[in-house]
Amino acid sequence: MAKILIVSDNPQLSSAFVSLTNTSTYRDDYFEFRCSLNSVTAMSKAVDKPVKPVNIKLEYPEICENFDLVISLHCKQLFPEEMVQNVRCINVHPGLNPFNRGWFPQVFSILNGLPLGATIHEIDEHLDHGNIIAQEQVEVLAWDTSKTAYDRVLAAEVRLLQQHLRSIIDGNFVSHPAEQEGNVNLKKDYNALCEIDLSEKLTFSDAIDRLRALTHTPYQNAFFIDPKTGKKIFVSVTLNADPTGQ
Ligand code: 0FX
Question: Is 121:175 a contact under the CB 8 Å cutoff?
Fold first, then answer.
């Protein structure tokens, strides 16, 4: 029986993972979920059983000893180098490595035009970097917001898990390094995008891209400060492709 630890802070993907593994293909495997402290309530609801919090930096020796495989489904904690060297660690990432590795890939793909998709890869000591096991590219449409592009990426992640989870657990997958190092975006890069400078001059095309990249219900991301009242005003956009196909 393979003992697999799933570390996740993403309820939606975790719930899809539970549906996938509640099938006869996985009846001989043992899955345990853990998450960051602030995700306990949402994660327990998503997987329909209590999920224990984990501090990976402190608890990784116990993890290495007790599990054959660790799968990160959007875990917000970094895995220590010593952990990834001692137990097989796999990441399911909402981006098409090596493009826009790191934070919120679809936001940056809308802005810089680099390809978007989902990647399952081995975890090494660098961010979203290890050998690639499987990938699926998704399109970015002119009328996408962060939310619509993200939903497409999540669906691709679930498809990749359906296709590759069995071989990942059995350890008989093939993986290869990315052909280039690509680029990385951090949380601070994303945060810097959110404050709109009302005096910035840019084309309509760039302005629409910036606002749709930051439109993601139910979040309020882009904002400007009203010069008259000093109030913070949030901005999001609605885009609709003509349904008649014109
Ligand atoms: O779980 P996740 O989809 O993924 C993020 C990173 O993008 C990913 O690279 C990393 N491996 C993982 C650990 O964390 O993030 P989320 O559930 O916090 O957010 C999902 C989407 O929601 C995000 O892509 C954009 C949107 N969002 C989220 C927050 C928190 C916003 O638009 N504004 C926000 O403040």
Answer: yes
Exposed / middle / buried, residue 171 (Cβ in 10 Å: 0-12, 13-18, 19+) = exposed
Place of tokens 């609801």: 45
Q: Considering the entire predicted model, what is its pTM?
A: 0.96
Nearest CA to ligand 1 atom 22: 216
**Is any ligand 1 atom within 6 A of the Cβ of residue 104?**
yes
Give the separation between CA 132 and CA 148, rounded to whole angstroms: 25
Phi-psi domain of 143 (left: phi exceeds 0; alpha: psi -120 through 50; beta: other): alpha
pLDDT tens sequence across 94-129: 999 999 999 999 999 999 999 999 999 999 999 999
Residues 135-156 have pLDDT tens digits of 999 999 999 999 999 999 999 9
Distance 128 CA to ligand 1 centre (A): 14
* 144 CA from centroid of ligand 1 (Å): 16
103 ligand 1 Cβ < 6 A: yes
| Strands 52-53 and 30-35, sheet pairing | parallel
Name the residue with the closest Cα to ligand 1, atom 18. Answer: 10
Is residue 221 lining ligand 1, measured as CB closer than 6 Å?
yes
Q: Please give the Cα distance from 128 to 173 (Å, whole number).
A: 18
